[in-house]
Amino acid sequence: MKKEEKTIIIQSLVAQLAKTPNFYLADTSGLNAERTAQLRKACFDKNIKLIVVKNTLLRNALQQVENEENKQLYSLLEGPTSILFTDSAAIPAKLIKEFGAKHGKPVLKGAYLQECAYVGAHHLDALTSIKSREDLIGDIIGMLQSPIRNIISGLTTAGANLTGIAETLGERE
Q1: Continuous segment of H or E residues that includes residue 169
Q2: Which of 78, 92, 141, 154 is the most buried if burial means most Cβ atoms within 10 Å?
């Protein structure tokens, strides 16, 4: 591969990392053509971009991003590496877990999600349950709204009871 071709690939990886900063690294070696096609289709259906790239080119792209957390992933760049770019944090982990359980591969090497690096396949279960930033914000808003709803409900109920009490007191006079 010529130096110009490598530069183009590195630049496209840097652009992809800027566009989609959440990604998974997986080992998909050993999958036959049929299984690889099934994996690519499953990724496409779930809006995951699957790329197989040379480790040195990925390392160069990660170095250009200049992120301290990414440095933890350098040790994973040995052997065949596939990158799964995603907007959703947990969907690729679920895909890797399901597809890997059926076919033995892919195997999670690591991930970079929400500005944190996860190194090793032992993080797969935790990554399947991770929530996106938007989901967490929604949960916080829901928790903040709950006490307010209880107060409004209590005041509404109490207001109806106060009206009944006032009518009863008015009848006694």
Answers
A1: helix 133-172
A2: 92
| Separation between Cα atoms, residue 86 and residue 133, nearest integer Å | 13
> Strand (E) positions, 10-102?
22-27, 49-52, 82-86
What's 61-83 look like in SS3? HHHHHCCCHHHHHHHHCCCCCEE
Measure the CA–CA gap between 42 and 92, rounded to whole angstroms.
Answer: 10
CA dist 129 → 39, 79, 166 (Å): 21, 28, 53
65-112 pLDDT, tens digit each = 877 777 888 888 888 888 998 888 888 888 888 888 888 888 888 888
Q: pTM value?
A: 0.72
